[in-house]
Design goal:
The chain has 465 residues and is α/β, with parallel strands linked by helices. It has helices at 3-14, 34-53, 66-78, 91-107, 125-144, 160-168, 185-190, 214-223, 239-244, 284-288, 313-350, 374-383, 410-427, 451-462; strands at 117-122, 150-154, 171-175, 196-202, 227-231, 261-264, 277-282, 292-294, 302-304, 355-357, 364-369, 389-391, 396-400, 436-437, 444-445. Bound molecules: pyridoxal-5'-phosphate.
Length: 465
């Protein structure tokens, strides 16, 4: 397959507005009238909204009921100027963030441990993970004199850990998961060495949605005197409610003594507007290694809890508003709907003989095929308007069930389209091919060789007007 053709296909997916909508690669001489700007923004919105609104997208928009979205937008619009970097100008934002942290911590077992569980609000799951890894690096340097830090993570852990490894100079030991796609307990322990500062498990990992054996792993970490981070970015706001509803949820939170930090995304199943997450620690001492403090700068004393300086207070207000408006009852009800729908989807996929579901997941359902090309099936689904997440090694695809999929008829339509796509690929074996899925995009890209360079070029394209 030729690369130019792939690039052409990607370009039409990434830059659909070229030549069709006004372009501003320089300032317009006179500013546009506000109504005209609003009109343009609305046009883009209306072109993009139907796909996620109708439940055709995996993950991405986790709530999306218009009343809830309007409410989030209203809160943001009231506080859009707020910046918690100015602690004394907007103490309300600090209050919101303190309460977001506390509510999240108590959902995740803070009541059931003797230690104090503390944390901060960040801009998203990746930042929460970056912060936790930086915290362990600085903790280990100060307390254990480790200058060549290493982390042990299962192969399913989110790439944000790899990003942290690159950004902060922490050597990464990625341990293959077992045949059941859960972290391999023995192999994880064997990967620990004197430079190991932290071990990681996910509840659940992004690819296949199968929770790692956090209880065993965190005990191993504890016995070695290293940190243990549970990445609950995805499941943190769903699994606690699933457990209350009687679903089988292995322990993954601060009830386990060995768990010393967690990441948990308000902007996923917390149903908040995009741009917030929570990172939690066992004890204030550990959290202190996250902070950045400057005492001798000409600009005065400077204290910053996270990676960014100025921060969007309006988003923290919106996250707080989501938590307190939904309450326990709202989260429980949302979880009930999502888990019921996910069960329906899982059962439906299992009923298609050419497909198999990976493991027995609760709400992120990964599936593959022994006889057909799963990427070809995904491509046909894409043409039918669906947007799933492609996985690799082994080839598979997943759907992360959200409230969007709980709307009437969505799960049924998905299963019908999936069945038809399987049939289509069976009839058209020529559309098979080995492809590389791009995270966050539906299109699969067939590439051999210079994938890394190609993806750098792809990002260059993204930032072209
Ligand atoms: C989404 C996700 C992340 C990263 O979160 P972002 O908000 O995209 O930065 C990390 N871990 C898991 C398991 C996730 O699902």
């Amino acid at each position: 397959m030729d690369v130019a053709k792939i690039e052409e296909g990607l370009l039409s997916a990434l830059k659909p507005y070229r030549g069709k909508m006004p372009t501003f690669d320089r300032f317009p001489k006179d500013g546009l009238a506000r109504e005209d700007v609003l009109d343009l923004i609305n046009q883009f919105y209306q072109l993009e909204e139907p796909r996620w609104r109708s439940g055709h997208v995996s993950g991405a928009v986790y709530h999306g009921d218009q009343e809830h979205v309007d409410f989030q937008n209203k809160v943001y619009s009231i506080q859009s100027q707020a910046n918690p970097l100015h602690l004394d100008v907007w103490p309300s934002i600090s209050k919101f963030e303190a309460e977001i942290v506390s509510m999240t911590a108590h959902m995740l077992g803070a009541d059931l441990t003797d230690d104090e569980i503390v944390g901060t609000v960040s801009s998203g799951g990746s930042e929460s993970i970056l912060l936790a890894m930086k915290t362990y690096r600085d903790w280990a340097r100060a307390i254990k004199n480790i200058t060549q830090p290493e982390m042990v993570i299962p192969s399913t852990a989110h790439v944000a850990f790899e990003k942290a490894s690159q950004y902060f100079g922490i050597k990464m030991n990625r341990v293959p998961v077992g045949a059941d796609f859960r972290a391999d307990i023995k192999a994880m322990e064997a990967a620990i060495n004197p430079n190991t500062i932290v071990m990681v498990g996910s509840a659940p990992p992004f690819p296949h949605g199968i929770v790692d054996p956090i209880e065993e792993l965190s005990e191993i970490a504890r016995s070695h005197g290293i940190g243990f981070h549970t990445d609950a970015c995805l499941g943190g706001f769903l699994l606690p409610w699933a457990e209350k509803l009687g679903y089988p949820v292995p322990k993954f939170d601060f009830r386990l003594k060995g768990v010393t930090s967690m990441s948990c995304d308000t902007h996923k199943y917390g149903y908040a507007a995009k741009g917030t997450s929570v990172v939690l620690y066992r004890g204030r001492k550990l959290r202190h290694y996250q902070y950045y403090i400057a005492t001798d700068w000409m600009g005065g004393l400077y204290l910053s809890p996270t990676l960014t300086g100025s921060r969007p207070g309006g988003l923290s207000a919106a996250a707080w508003a989501a938590l307190v408006s939904l309450g326990e009852k709202g989260y429980l009800e949302a979880a009930r709907k999502i888990l019921t729908t996910a069960e329906k989807i899982k059962t439906g996929i299992r009923a298609i003989p050419e497909l198999f579901v990976i493991g027995d997941p609760l709400f992120v359902i990964a599936f593959g095929s022994k006889e057909l090309d799963i990427y070809a099936i995904t491509d046909v689904l894409t043409q039918k308007g669906w947007n799933l997440n492609g996985l690799q090694n082994p080839p598979a695809v997943h759907i992360a069930t959200t409230l969007r999929h709980t709307e009437k008829g969505v799960a049924e339509q998905f299963l019908k389209d999936l069945q038809e796509s399987v049939e289509y690929v069976k009839q058209h074996p020529e559309i098979q091919g080995s492809m590389t899925p791009v995270y966050g995009m539906t299109s699969s890209v067939m590439l051999r060789g210079a994938v890394d360079e190609f993806l750098r070029g792809l990002l260059d394209t993204v930032f072209e007007a």
